Amino acid sequence: MSLRVAWSRVQALRQESVRSDELLMRAAYVGCVPILLAYGCAGVVYGNLPMFTPIGFVDMPGACAWLTAAMAFALAIFAVDWLVRGELAVAPPPVTVVEQVWRPGTFPSPILPPHVVAQPRSLPLRIACLSIAAVACASALVGRVTLALGWQAFARPGGLAPQAEWPLYPLQWIWPWLLPLARDSFVLGLIGVGVALYVAAQLMSWRKVRGAWLPLLAILPLLLTLNFLGSAGFDFAAARGLGGLNEPELASALAQQPGRYNVFTFLSLWIAIGFGTVGLILGFLFGRSRSMDDA
To answer: Among the four 27, 94, 252, 262, which has the fewest Cβ within 10 Å?
Structure first.
């Protein structure tokens, strides 16, 4: 292979890497938009919405759920704006051409163009979205603290339809196929596969194999996807007595607090969708890195 051919191949791989990274980022934003919209709609419908914090998921009832939904909607609009307009860009300063006429007996003096400071492109929509999301998140956390202290200022309003099942679609159709994923033997098998992948990745890392952790990072989200799908299918069917399941505690929880029970079932479903999306993206990265190594 000549030096020119090798250099052209390196340049092609570099351009392909840049395009792949842009496609990967766009796919991540595309995946975030429906998840954020569904998350916000669930809070409005059920009047209860868990928020992920450094100490885990915190239950957000009443007005706290509506504020959390407002945060999700604002972040979704921000992601849509990024997909439409792209990244922030700094406008280049205008080029000024200065013409100096020289006359006999005079010496030309240098004339500099006026100093122009480059200003970033103004995107007030993004600033507004991030501001609304920050204020809504902070207000929801403050409201949750007041509820924990016994103040009921944020206890209302409730959800629009706490017993609605349409946000849980397609669990109404696929729950019979998801019940086997909730069996103890299947869950133990998922744990065994995860442990085996971790040990294999650790051994390859000790042997300094390039990309040793990529298979684990790509497959682990898919294992979590199966686990959460099984949990969502079991919670949906058991509380309603479907498939011959008899779980009085789950049926009582659904009858007493339908909004809270349904939103946690919803959360299991969409966490599975989120992990599946992450697994596909990481699988794409793994495949791209292998193809670049082979080239």
So the answer is: 94
CA distance 18 to 77: 26
Determine how many CB atoms are found less than 10 A away from the CB of residue 214. 18
Domain encompassing residue 70? 1-89+123-160
Domain co-membership, 173 together with 139: no
CB 88 within 8 A of CB 121: yes
Residue 117 lies in a domain: no
- Tokens representing residue 246 in the block: 């008899």
Residue type (1 letter), 106:
T
Which phi and psi angles does 48 have, rounded to 5°? -155, 130
Nearest-CA neighbor of 76 among 31, 134, 136? 31
| Cβ-Cβ contacts under 8 Å for 235 (sequence gap 6 or more) | 250, 261, 264, 265, 268
Residue 129 carries which side chain, given as an amino acid letter? C
How many domains does the chain fold into? 2
pLDDT in tens, 224-267: 999 999 999 999 999 999 988 889 999 999 999 999 999 999 99
